[in-house]
Structures are given as structure tokens and as C-alpha cells.
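Show me a record, fold above all:
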Amino acid sequence: MRWIWIDRVIQLEAGRLCVATRNTTFAEPYFHANAAMGIDGDAPPLMPHPFIIEGMAQTAGILVGHAGDFKENVILAKIARATFHGTMPPGFTLRFEATLERFDRAGASTKGRVERIDPAGLEPAFLLAEIDLLFSHIDHARQKIDLPEQPFVFSGALMELIVRTRDAKPIA
């Protein structure tokens, strides 16, 4: 994984649920790029939807990887559904919640919900998106693909993020 799109995994229940968050600020360059694309540079700064899908893919990918004890290379195979109910301005927190629907030798399917949370508490949590994803497990022999022996998706900084989850308290 080249970059991590979530800040923290706050809940991870084996084979069932993964919850992660991402805090946003106006300092992130994509907000400026979006604002500049409006007429006379006056479009509101908003997070592009593909970045929100990426956050869900990483959250759900952790769930799928954890269900397989991180022994498989988990690859996003398909975005089965991505329904957006609003936009994401800077200064809010994204809360990604992925549940495991199916897990087998070939791959997995997940259902996801993304909430926009106002850290100041001035606005109630808002269901921003519903994102359902399909993942594949890469089989070295069957696919005849030259891949590293060790799963390459779950390495480095992403595994450090997951390890920190062990100290997180479950959310009621």
C-alpha cells in the first residue's frame, strides 16, 4: 500500500466489523484543487468521492485481511455499490464502518457505511455514503503471478496502524 487514507482503526472484531476514522483539514491539497475548479475559483472545498471510497476500501481491506490472519494478499476487485448522500467539507471527521458479509477461499464481500462527524458537535452525525466492496485473494500458483511471498498489502505503516488498535477500547 503506497499511502494510508485512514488515521486510526478504533474497532476491529475478527470476521465481523472494522471501524476507522480520518480527520480532515483545509490544509490537505485536494480541498484547494476542488475549490479552484469552480467558476472564478469559488467552488466550495470538498473531498472528492474516490478518496472516500479509498478510505472505505482500506478499512474493509483490514477487516478482510484480519479475517484471514493477514496471510493472503487482499485486492479490491469491485465496487459493488457507492451511494453518496452528501458532501465532505474540510474540518470534519470521516467514520468508516465495514462489516463482513462473506469470506471464503476466493475472496470476500463487505458492506460499508461512512458517516460525517462534526468534531465540534455543532451538527449531528450524517450518513455520508454506503459503499459495498468485493475483494479477491490472490493465489500465487493458480494465477501464475510473480508476487512477493509475504503479503504486500499488509506491511509497514498499515500494520503499525493496525497494531495500535490493540490498545483501542471497543465502542458500545
Remarks:
- The radius of gyration is 17 Å.
- The longest strand covers residues 126-138.
- The helical segments are 29-36, 49-67, 140-143, 156-164.
